[in-house]
Design a protein that fits this description.
The structure holds two protein chains of two kinds. By secondary structure, chain A is mainly α. Chain A has one domain (75-300): MetI-like (MetI-like fold), CATH 1.10.3720.10. Chain A has 13 helices and no strands. Chain A has helices spanning 10-35, 63-69, 81-112, 119-131, 134-145, 150-157, 171-195, 199-207, 212-223, 225-240, 244-249, 257-266, 271-300. Chain B is mainly alpha-helical. Chain B has helices at 10-44, 60-67, 69-102, 109-121, 124-142, 149-174, 177-185, 190-219, 222-227, 235-245, 249-298. The chains are: A mainly alpha, B mainly alpha. Chains A and B meet through α1, α3, α4, α5 and α6 of A and α1, α3, α4, α5 and α6 of B.
Chain lengths: 304, 299
């Protein structure tokens, strides 16, 4: 079967994925960048060319970026709906990551400390929901958290509350949905880190008279720093750009930046501003990403 | 969350921590992870459109599901998109992984590695938006491609290729290169080495890459929302549209069917992997025994 196959030379093997990425990643990014520096078009053209049709002079327009940070000419700096949406996205992403850490750390810890024979099954059980539709799992929370939903019925049945507590379309439902979806992203790197830990260090701490609580804080947690940071960033980075969960579980006041980009593009039809917002979003992602690579890079190198 | 500090008996605390608290915590988090799935499975069989009261067993929502043309059409579109995406991602992911693992030095390696990893961290909204701009530009310039099936596949494959690359890369790095060298020493040509040695060795990873990108594609809302054309809606898009409006137990029925399908695929895949591993271990053991026997007789 293989004998008539043309020898895949190095150039061919590199060329195929390179060409694909050039067309579907690099080129779209250039177009995105380009449109963010031009004026909004008139009538059917969504944007103007970067050169003046009469004179042919090139000129970059920074107004799209300015309008993100400043409300109108001479308006207050940083008091725009865009900045608010960015800050809100970062805020929710931060809380999501924190909640995932608080729930996920003990969880990963106990999986890592369980007998080696059951660990694969326990991990598989973390991954299984991940393979079923993310959208459907988020949708289910809508039914669980609704005013007439299961949770409220249980709370009322137990007499904890007399009337339904509004949880859906609030910060609570947003954070429950986000934490739920991103928890595996926290658990897996933490587990990978904790399972490698040398338990003899803990035993040494016990032998020297430390309480388990102190040993946990002074030995286990510092040793798993790389895992904590990796997990935190793996949750934080995608959570900032989350689009679906706020749309389904968030209220009208919880609009995040992904939604704002969408609305600028399709509702306001302001392509240059939508692209400028997207470019700023990329810039925002790069900071936590740099932190992530800094720490995981450190962890990958053997320490002496 | 953490055990209280006042405890003075480390051994007791340790036992308590490891046994009961740990088990309780695991159970609670698993309950949290599986609660929505359980909820949907149960209420998909409910006889009325109610979310809190189970009023009786019924298959009416499954029946409603099969009669919903939007869902049925969306399902077939999603299957097509996901199948093509899965194959393309597995192939391109193999290429990309091969390039990153085997070609340590070539011009533009840093750019390549950056480009192939970037979709993993880019917000989906940004990927969707930039690809939409490319497709609109291409359509204005060449009149192709029409927004729909093909453009969605392009978008999903960009993401699927990166995830596929990660899976195949780890497999390729774990692979023992000495078998390839042995094959080459025995006169196999490079492409023979690739197809007869390398490919079978990383096949598990390629299959995993296919399954992963199939799932990602089958589940994707955001990129499809940007890249689909009028009247072309994948299953997640249809569900997303319904979900924003309110409760529809047909969606629970769809979810239940999906959960069943995923469970079957995952279990089959794990059984297959376990069997492969066992077979390999047996072969290695047999080879070792033969070798030992040879050493014993020659000694």
């Amino acid at each position: 079967m293989a004998s008539h196959f043309p020898i895949p030379g190095k150039r061919f093997v590199i060329g195929v994925p390179y060409a694909w990425l050039f067309v579907f990643f690099f080129l779209p990014f250039l177009i995105l960048l380009y449109i963010s520096f031009v004026d909004m078009g008139e009538s059917i053209n969504p944007f103007k060319p970067i050169w003046d049709p009469q004179t042919g002079i090139l000129s970059l327009k920074y107004e799209n970026y300015w309008s993100i940070f400043r409300d109108g000419e001479g308006g207050d700096l940083f008091k725009t709906i865009y900045i608010e949406a960015y800050l809100r996205s970062i805020w929710y992403a931060f809380w999501t990551a924190l909640l995932c850490l608080l729930i996920g750390y003990p969880f990963a810890y106990f999986i890592a400390r369980s007998p080696a024979s059951v660990r694969p099954a326990l991990l598989m059980m973390v991954m299984l929901p991940f393979w079923t539709s993310f959208l459907l799992r988020v949708y289910a929370w809508k039914g669980i958290l609704a005013d007439q939903g299961v949770l409220n019925q249980i709370l009322m049945g137990l007499g904890i509350t007399n009337e339904p507590i509004q949880m859906l379309y609030t910060n609570v439902s947003m954070l429950v949905g986000m934490t739920y979806v991103y928890l595996p992203f926290m658990v897996l790197p933490l587990y990978a880190n904790l399972v490698k830990m040398d338990v003899r260090l803990l035993e040494a701490a016990y032998d020297l008279g430390t309480t388990p609580f102190k040993a946990f804080w002074l030995v286990t947690v510092p040793l798993s720093k790389a895992g904590i940071i990796a997990g935190f960033m793996l949750v934080f980075i995608p959570a900032v750009g989350e689009f679906v969960i706020p749309s389904l579980l968030g209220g009208p006041e919880n609009i995040m930046i992904g939604r704002v980009v969408w609305d600028e593009m399709f509702t306001s039809n302001n392509w240059p501003r939508a692209t400028a917002l997207a470019v700023v979003m990329i810039a925002l992602i790069i900071v936590p990403l740099a932190i992530y690579y800094h720490f995981t890079g450190d962890a990958a190198e053997p320490r002496k | 969350m953490q055990p209280s500090q006042e405890s003075k008996g480390p051994e007791i605390m340790k036992a308590l921590l490891e046994k009961h608290f740990g088990k309780a915590w695991l159970a609670l988090v698993y309950l949290f992870l599986y609660l929505p799935l359980l909820f949907m499975v149960i209420f998909s069989f409910n006889s009325t459109r109610q979310d809190a009261n189970f009023t009786g067993l019924s298959l009416r929502w499954y029946e409603a599901l099969t009669r919903d043309t939007k869902i049925v059409e969306g399902f077939w579109l999603s299957v097509k998109v996901a199948a093509v995406t899965g194959v393309l991602s597995a192939v391109l992911g193999t290429f990309a992984a091969f390039v990153l693992v085997r070609y340590r030095r070539f011009a533009g390696r840093t750019i390549f590695s950056g480009m192939v990893n970037a979709p993993l961290v880019m917000p989906e909204v940004v990927i969707g938006l930039s690809l939409l701009l490319l497709m609109v530009g291409a359509q204005n310039a060449f009149g192709w491609p029409e927004r729909g099936l093909l453009t969605i596949i392009f978008g999903h494959t960009l993401l699927g290729m990166s995830y596929g690359m990660v899976v195949i890369q780890s497999r390729l790095m774990d692979m023992d290169r000495s078998i390839e060298e042995a094959a080459m020493d025995l006169g196999a040509r490079p492409h023979e080495v690739f197809f007869l040695i390398t490919l079978p060795n990383i096949f598990q990873g390629i299959l995993a890459a296919f399954l992963l990108s199939f799932t990602l594609s089958f589940d994707d809302v955001v990129i499809s929302e940007f890249l689909s054309g009028p009247g072309v809606n994948t299953l997640p898009q249809v569900i997303f549209g319904y979900a924003r409006r309110g409760i529809n137990p047909s969606i629970y029925a769809a979810a239940t069917l999906l959960i069943a399908a995923v469970t079957i695929v995952i279990v089959t895949y794990s059984v297959w992997v376990a069997r492969q591993t066992r077979r390999r271990e047996r072969e290695i053991a047999a080879a070792t025994r033969a070798e030992l026997a040879a050493i014993a007789t020659s000694a």
